[in-house]
């Protein structure tokens, strides 16, 4: 049996001129563009006295954002909350705009990875980095990493995890479909292992970028 | 400045305690991008770790957003006049304030001539995360020392913070090389804003493009880069 | 000194060094205050760390709905009403009906919610409940299908009339005529039940996911849908006089929410105050077989405890799950018992 792997990752940072940080991230055929503004001025009613306000705007490829998009926004913003040192910039806002370019499966993890790269580009102070990996359990119980839309549709369950870079602890977990606790744990373990690939990708792309100066 | 030749790319969350301790000095200063988390020195930004005299460490990156730091000279745009102070946009999350008394020779009677929309070159007197930044256009002896309102004849453009730091470092030869080709007056604010005045519009554009092109050009390539742009400009 | 009288005696021992007033609204003070309790393995309301609040369930509260339930989880109160309506099935799944769970957080339940469009939290919880219902295959959606492909007489508008079946008084008045959109001649009309499940929070004191799910499950168990027959002459759907059918649920998912306090302690069934002080939260939904329907951990710092623990020794895991299980059984017991109406104390 061939070991399933994360699809090919590619990324370009600082693609947009106006935002303070931006990234164009693709994982297989899924592609997401992210712009980050911050620390910028904050609306009076959203101001928090001792830390920065994090706002995520999720734009689907077509149509208006609905409840599902709202839930995605919340998950992304909570994930960012966990890694950004918000207390470094009190009374400011960090606005993250996520635009889906193409959804070909594992969209949530693709978004989180893109957001992490854009935050790094914007120079926002972070405790650590975050990498998200999705996986699916097929009908016959096989764990498939980074499933495409087709695989996810027939899978018995799909899971998304986000890990932080220090201890590889889980920041986010979201599941669809049923599975046994053992299956959940084995998915968690294999996603955790696969997150290494994404962290290595972050490092190599940063090294390539800064070798120029 | 004796910047260390060793260039290491660091990412947020990297523990740099060993790297800092290796320098041997017991006391060290941590600059932007470095924090202490439970006795470890940890990077919180993505960039290149730099050090000075093995006792000061910071991370250099291509950030665009300015975070005010005390003592830095910045170029601000006057946005509002409110009683005794001017509100000045310096590109940070909060607008800075500038008292009308903090100009050279200003008294209660003799107010400085500052209009809304003017550019001011000023020093940050107060800059911390919990307070509005405060600017002054005089030094401690009351002299302007180059600070003050910038002439409306110049041209201001924005660039990355990294480029400003690079241009201001003594090793960077760009302004020396460029100055020999085009006579120019330049003011560099640490907040990613550069004010420029040349003899003609075409020279201003040429100088601006040269400065912006320097961001990813190494020091030894700068003379050839300037030469290239100058020869391209010669036709106009 | 703490002035609340209901604190257990165990706590009074450590009161000497607590000099913070309970009513202090400042986060930092409450944090210190809470820390002292946590050290003693007890919470300010007298519960142990893994203990649920007293739960009260009242089934069949609303007469006009097809199914309803009122749940009180401590102070948190959720009222769930399920109402069936006729609707065209989804285009891509013509044989299925559907379920629309909706959680409402009106200003009534807490001052943190304002009048106007649904708050972010309401939308997020609604989505989570919807995900759980889908993941667990709670209801066989094909059983909600009424008619698949009825040829209608062309041109005229078609009405589907429902006649009150006498499930409950006041039932008929809510059941007027449902007008389906006009279709072209010989349009193929399909008809399914759509179950609107409205969960309205009456009192917000934390842990609304668990409470909403209990309310939803109890209300769905309570649903009696009238039997429907399509009159072939008129093309109208007529609800028959007898034979209301209870809804069949394929499983019983139960949610358990925890918050992480101080990065080390897990608190089950958090109150609003505990949610505010916590560094993270996780909701685990398990069915009666012990299969996981959802592990929802929506980020936030510090919420790393449970999955890490999940990952350590497997013995640890099973113990955790067993612990979970015992809490869940309590809920199941009530939901499982086919009870018509009335209030039940889960403890």
Automatic annotation (TrEMBL), chain A:
Give the Basic and acidic residues compositional bias ranges. Answer: 1-10
Q: Where is this region: Disordered?
A: 1-27
Report the Pfam families cross-referenced here: RNase_PH (PF01138), RNase_PH_C (PF03725)
| Keyword Thylakoid set for record | no
For the keyword Nucleus, the answer is yes
Q: The Exoribonuclease phosphorolytic domain covers which part of the protein?
A: 5-124, 128-189
Binding partners and assembly: Homodimer. Component of the RNA exosome core complex (Exo-9), composed of EXOSC1, EXOSC2, EXOSC3, EXOSC4, EXOSC5, EXOSC6, EXOSC7, EXOSC8 and EXOSC9; within the complex interacts with EXOSC3, EXOSC8, and EXOSC9. The catalytically inactive RNA exosome core complex (Exo-9) associates with the catalytic subunit EXOSC10/RRP6. Exo-9 may associate with DIS3 to form the nucleolar exosome complex, or DIS3L to form the cytoplasmic exosome complex.
Q: Identify its protein family.
A: Belongs to the RNase PH family.
Q: Kindly provide the name given to this protein in its UniProt entry.
A: Exosome complex component RRP46
**Organism annotation:** Holothuria leucospilota (Black long sea cucumber)
UniProtKB/TrEMBL annotation, chain B:
Q: From the Swiss-Prot or TrEMBL record, what is one GO molecular function term?
A: RNA binding
For this protein, the record's Gene3D superfamilies field holds: 2.40.50.100, K Homology domain, type 1, Nucleic acid-binding proteins
The compartments listed are:
Cytoplasm; Nucleus, Nucleolus
Annotated coiled-coil positions are none
Tell me where it mainly resides: cytoplasm
**UniProt keyword Flavoprotein present:** no
Its cellular-component GO annotations read: cytoplasmic exosome (RNase complex); nuclear exosome (RNase complex); nucleolus
Signal sequence interval, chain numbering? none
Q: Which domain of life is it from?
A: Eukaryota
Q: Which UniProt keywords apply?
A: Cytoplasm, Exosome, Nucleus, RNA-binding, rRNA processing
Looking up InterPro entries in the UniProt record yields:
Exosome_RNA_bind1/RRP40/RRP4 (IPR026699), KH_dom_type_1 (IPR004088), KH_dom_type_1_sf (IPR036612), NA-bd_OB-fold (IPR012340), RRP40_KH-I (IPR049469), Rrp40_N_euk (IPR041054), Rrp40_S1 (IPR037319)
Q: Which Pfam families match?
A: KH_6 (PF15985), Rrp40_N (PF18311), RRP40_S1 (PF21262)
State the Gene Ontology BP annotations. Answer: CUT catabolic process; exonucleolytic trimming to generate mature 3'-end of 5.8S rRNA from tricistronic rRNA transcript (SSU-rRNA, 5.8S rRNA, LSU-rRNA); nuclear polyadenylation-dependent rRNA catabolic process; poly(A)-dependent snoRNA 3'-end processing; regulation of gene expression; TRAMP-dependent tRNA surveillance pathway; U4 snRNA 3'-end processing
Where do the Exosome complex exonuclease Rrp40 N-terminal domain residues begin and end?
Answer: 29-65
Record-annotated K Homology domain positions: 154-201
**What family is it from?**
Belongs to the RRP40 family.
What is the protein's name according to its record? Exosome complex component RRP40
TrEMBL record, chain C:
Which Gene Ontology cellular-component terms appear in the entry?
cytoplasmic exosome (RNase complex); nuclear exosome (RNase complex); nucleolus
Which branch of life, at top level? Eukaryota
Q: Where in the cell is it found?
A: Cytoplasm; Nucleus, Nucleolus
Q: Which Pfam families match?
A: RNase_PH, RNase_PH_C
List the InterPro entries.
ExoRNase_PH_dom1, ExoRNase_PH_dom2, ExoRNase_PH_dom2_sf, Exosome_comp_Rrp42_subfam, PNPase/RNase_PH_dom_sf, Ribosomal_Su5_D2-typ_SF, Rrp43
Classification via Gene3D superfamilies: GHMP Kinase, N-terminal domain
Q: Which residues form the Exoribonuclease phosphorolytic domain?
A: 51-226, 252-302
Biological process terms from the Gene Ontology for this record are: exonucleolytic trimming to generate mature 3'-end of 5.8S rRNA from tricistronic rRNA transcript (SSU-rRNA, 5.8S rRNA, LSU-rRNA); nuclear mRNA surveillance; nuclear polyadenylation-dependent rRNA catabolic process; rRNA catabolic process; TRAMP-dependent tRNA surveillance pathway; U1 snRNA 3'-end processing; U4 snRNA 3'-end processing; U5 snRNA 3'-end processing
Asked whether the keyword Secreted is assigned, the reply is no
- rRNA processing: is it a keyword of this entry? yes
Principal subcellular localisation of the protein: cytoplasm
Q: Which UniProt keywords apply?
A: Cytoplasm, Exosome, Nucleus, RNA-binding, rRNA processing
Instruction: Provide any one GO MF term from the record.
Output: mRNA 3'-UTR AU-rich region binding
Q: Give the UniProt family note.
A: Belongs to the RNase PH family.
Protein's recorded name: Ribosomal RNA-processing protein 43
Native species: Holothuria leucospilota (Black long sea cucumber)
């Amino acid at each position: 049996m061939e070991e399933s792997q994360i699809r090919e990752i590619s990324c370009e940072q600082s693609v947009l001129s106006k935002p303070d940080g931006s990234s164009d991230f693709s994982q297989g055929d899924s592609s997401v563009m992210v712009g980050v503004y911050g620390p910028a001025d904050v609306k009076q009613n959203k101001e928090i006295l001792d830390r920065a306000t994090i706002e995520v705007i999720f734009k689907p490829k077509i149509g208006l954002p609905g409840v599902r998009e709202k839930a995605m926004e919340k998950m992304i913003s909570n994930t960012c909350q966990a890694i950004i040192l918000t207390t470094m910039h009190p009374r400011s806002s960090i606005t993250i705009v996520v635009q889906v370019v193409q959804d070909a499966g594992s969209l949530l993890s693709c978004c989180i990875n893109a957001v992490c790269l854009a935050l790094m580009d914007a120079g926002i102070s972070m405790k650590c980095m975050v990498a998200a990996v999705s996986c699916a359990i097929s009908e016959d119980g096989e764990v498939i990493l980074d499933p495409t839309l087709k695989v996810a549709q027939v899978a018995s369950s799909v899971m998304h995890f986000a890990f932080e870079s220090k201890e590889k602890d889980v920041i986010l977990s979201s599941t669809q479909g049923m599975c046994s606790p053992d299956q959940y744990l084995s998915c968690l373990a294999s996603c955790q292992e696969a997150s290494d690939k994404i962290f290595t990708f972050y490092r190599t792309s940063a090294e390539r970028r800064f070798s120029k100066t | 400045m004796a910047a260390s030749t060793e260039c290491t790319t660091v990412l947020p969350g990297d523990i740099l305690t060993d790297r800092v301790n290796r320098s041997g000095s017991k006391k060290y200063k941590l600059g932007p991008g470095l924090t202490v988390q439970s006795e470890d020195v940890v990077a919180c930004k993505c960039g290149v770790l730099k050090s000075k005299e093995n006792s000061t460490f910071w991370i250099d990156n291509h950030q665009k957003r300015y975070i005010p730091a005390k003592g830095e000279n910045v170029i601000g745009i006057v946005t509002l006049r409110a009683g005794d102070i001017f509100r000045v946009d310096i590109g940070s999350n909060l607008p800075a304030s500038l008292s009308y008394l903090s100009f050279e020779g200003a008294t209660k009677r003799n107010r400085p001539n500052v209009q809304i929309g003017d550019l001011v070159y000023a020093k940050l007197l107060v800059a911390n995360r919990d307070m509005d930044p405060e600017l002054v256009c005089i030094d401690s002896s009351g002299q302007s020392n180059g600070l003050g309102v910038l002439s409306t004849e110049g041209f201001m453009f924005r660039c990355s913070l990294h480029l400003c730091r690079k241009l201001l470092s003594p090793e960077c030869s760009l302004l020396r090389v460029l100055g020999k080709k085009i006579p120019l007056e330049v003011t560099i604010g640490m907040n990613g804003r550069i004010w420029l005045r040349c003899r003609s519009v075409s020279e201003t554009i040429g100088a601006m493009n040269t400065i912006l092109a320097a961001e990813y050009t190494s020091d030894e390539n700068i003379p050839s880069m300037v030469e290239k742009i100058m020869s391209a400009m010669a036709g106009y | 000194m703490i002035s609340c009288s209901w604190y257990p005696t165990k706590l009074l021992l450590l009161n000497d060094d607590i000099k913070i007033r309970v009513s202090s609204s400042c986060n930092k003070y409450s944090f210190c205050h809470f820390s002292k309790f946590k050290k003693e393995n007890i919470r300010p309301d007298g519960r142990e760390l893994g203990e649920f609040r007293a739960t009260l369930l009242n089934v069949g509260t609303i007469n006009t709905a097809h199914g309803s339930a009122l749940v009180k989880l401590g102070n948190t109160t959720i009222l769930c009403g399920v109402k069936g309506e006729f609707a065209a099935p989804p285009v891509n799944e013509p044989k299925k009906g559907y379920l629309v769970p909706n959680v409402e957080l009106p200003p009534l339940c807490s001052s943190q919610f304002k009048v106007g469009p649904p708050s972010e939290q309401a939308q997020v919880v609604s989505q989570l409940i919807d995900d759980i219902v889908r993941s667990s295959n709670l209801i066989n959606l094909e059983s909600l299908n009424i008619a698949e492909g009825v040829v209608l007489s062309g041109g005229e508008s078609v009405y589907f009339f429902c006649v009150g079946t006498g499930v409950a008084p006041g039932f008929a008045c809510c059941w007027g005529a449902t007008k389906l959109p006009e279709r072209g001649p010989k349009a193929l009309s399909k008809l399914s039940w759509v179950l609107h499940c409205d969960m309205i929070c009456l009192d917000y004191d934390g842990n609304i996911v668990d409470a909403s799910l209990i309310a939803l499950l109890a209300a769905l168990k309570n649903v009696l849908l009238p039997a429907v027959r399509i009159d072939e002459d008129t093309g109208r759907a007529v609800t028959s006089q007898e034979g209301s059918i209870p809804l069949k649920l394929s499983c019983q998912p139960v949610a358990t929410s925890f918050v992480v306090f101080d990065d080390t302690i897990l608190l089950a069934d958090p109150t609003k105050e505990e949610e505010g002080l916590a560094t993270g939260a996780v909701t685990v939904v398990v069915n009666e077989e012990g299969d996981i329907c959802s592990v929802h951990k929506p980020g936030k710092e510090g919420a790393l405890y449970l999955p890490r623990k999940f990952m350590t020794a497997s013995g640890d895991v099973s113990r955790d799950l067993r612990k979970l299980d015992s809490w869940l059984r309590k809920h199941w017991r009530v939901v499982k018992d086919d009870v018509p109406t009335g209030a039940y104390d889960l403890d």
